[in-house]
Amino acid sequence: MFDYVSFLQNLSNGVLIGGVYALIGVGLTLVFGVMKIINFAHGDFVILGMYCAVLLNSLLGWDPYLSLLVAMPLGFLTGALLQRLVLSRLMEAPPESSLLVTLGLALVIGNILLLTFGAEPKSVNVSYASSTVSLGEVSFSMILLLAGLATMVVIAGLYTVLNHTELGRAIRATADNRLGAELVGINTRWIEAVVFGIGMALAVTAGVVLIPLLFATPTFSGAIFTLKAFVVTVLGGLGNIGAAIAGGLLLGVVEVMGASYLTSDYRDAYGLLVFLLILLLRPEGLFGKTVKRV
Amino acid sequence: MKKHYFIFAGLVLVGILYPQMFPGYLSVAITLLLYAGWATAWDILGGWAGQVSLGHASFVGLGAYFVAVGTAHHEIAPWWSILMALVAAAMLAYLWGRLTFKLKGPYFTLSTIAIAEIFRLIAINEGWLTGGATGVFIMTLPEPFGLDLFSRQVNYYLALAFAAITVLVVMLISRSKFGYQLRAVREDEDAAMASGINPTTVKLKAFMLSGALTALGGGIYAIFLSFIEPHIIFYLLLSVQIALTAIIGGRGTIWGPCVGALLIVGSGEIFRTTFAEANMLIYGLLIMVVVIFMPRGIVGEPARYLIRRVYAKRAQG
User: Where do the structural domains in chain A lie, given as residue ranges?
Assistant: First the structure.
């Protein structure tokens, strides 16, 4: 007999955690779409967000969601600055140079966090940590629900900016055709800094949203999040935001379903297997257009 | 080319005499030699063939696990298990390459991370095969010719032999037809194909050689540590360390990976007290500086300058 309640429970958990993965993936895919670089430090930006929430909570007693007010602008500024000072030097270099530099950046961030906060895992205790909302027989964890909600708000905001503002139009133009964008007077170097800033702000937000749910550890978890972000973006097709959201939800569901119906030992492997299959069978992503390769 | 062989002979001689001069610093030297060997082996695929892999820890782990599980659970002598590991590593590299070599550039790199992570999870979860998350202890080792394989001196000479073999292999490759094929594929696959080279075959050969040599180092590493843990030996950071050592030193050069190892293991020793466990900070900073300011690596940049000057002189004369 198939157990519908636990299936629905798993599905909803998967979708909610997948929403956060989507948030991480969207930042990565946006940066790839505009700058054509693979940002290896993306997962460590997520960790930076986690530690930002931990720090504000331990110093001022702020709720993680309140610390978003500081974390998001700070993330944006840091990202824009990093792009101007470091990554802009690599625009002419081969694609793997930016991969290596961001890999170096990831190591630097992780190890500076390790030096500052120590190796022991840190978390934030919130009063609503164990409360749940029931809908029939399916119950939602309050933290997951809030995380899903925050993700939706942020992605909706990003969607509005990209599709209904002049800045968004400039960003899309730069992603589509850099030279064309420059010809109509868009300052693409400035757009790149803005986009990297947005990407980092999104990653930091995901970190803050995740902190009541997960422990922050300085060096190990960054790579895991980077990997998840890649899985999400490759699932959807690099550079495509709508597809990254779908990819994130898919990854969340695959992980939770795999963990509960197969074996939880390989929780992280299911996403990776799907990732490899898609890379090999449909390198343009599940939803990507098939492009003729030159 | 002759001067490379002279340098090689000189370095091996220094290496042989080193334990007599600094008997107190053997562990550092073993680490240095292992990294030099691994980075050189990585460079066959990553530098000469231009396929950046961030999954080489899988081969270290394969070699180490063959030796450790072989002695601890099945009483197989390490030299036989290393031989088996070499064959297994070459086979693994063949399948791995068959599967992923159609991916280009960064996509290939990402796929190596994913595959290596899956191996790490298998090593942790399949306890019947690998001893599980707690790892494997090597309690007893046979004594060939009365040599104690646990002694630092013997470990040192094993590591020296490993590093010397890999460097020698790369020196032989660099002037062989295979070496030129590798460089042709790295620079332009289409042009290589047009001149009658099958890029996939060439890359597969490079991967198999690179993987087998890395596994050889892994086996020696297991004997040196006498205790291996899947978390460490299959870990992404080990793959990253191996790759960055070669890239910092200079990809596609004979001595680059060795110089990289010297620089990184050396600075790791110097800053050990300052940074404690945050030793990867040095890798991070060095790789950023090198990629931005010296894209060909610490050995690659001056070598290129010298070569250009020689050609310029020839053109004038």
Answer: 4-88+140-281
Q: Amino acid identity of B133?
A: A
Mutate to test the interface with B, among A39, A103, A235, A284 (most CBs of B within 10 A): A103
Nearest to A110 by CA among A60, A159, A59, A45: A45
What's the gap between Cα A294 and its chain centre? 30
Nearest to B10 by CA among B36, B42, B266, B18: B18
Residues of B in Cβ contact (< 8 Å) with A101: 287-288, 291-292
**Which among A138, A152, A137 has a CA at the least distance from the CA of A209?**
A152
User: What is the per-residue pLDDT across A259-292, written as a single tens digit (0 to 9) for each?
Assistant: 878 777 777 788 788 888 887 787 666 665 554 4
- Quick one: how far is CA B281 from the chain centroid? 21
Name, in order, each residue with C-beta under 8 angstroms of B39's C-beta and a sequence gap of 6 or more.
Answer: B242, B243, B245, B246, B249, B257, B258, B260, B261
Task: Name which of A107, A235, A267, A281 to mutate to probe chain B: the one with the most chain B Cβ atoms within 10 A of its Cβ.
Answer: A107
Helix (H), strand (E) at residue B30: helix B26-43
Give contacts of A 204-243 with B, CB under 8 A: 219, 223, 227, 230-231, 234
**Residues B257, B80: Cα–Cα separation, whole Å:** 28
Average pLDDT per 10 consecutive residues for chain B, totaling 317 residues: 84 85 84 94 92 92 90 82 93 92 82 88 81 77 74 89 94 92 90 91 94 94 88 85 89 90 84 70 85 82 84 82
Residue scoring higher pLDDT (A32 or B59): B59
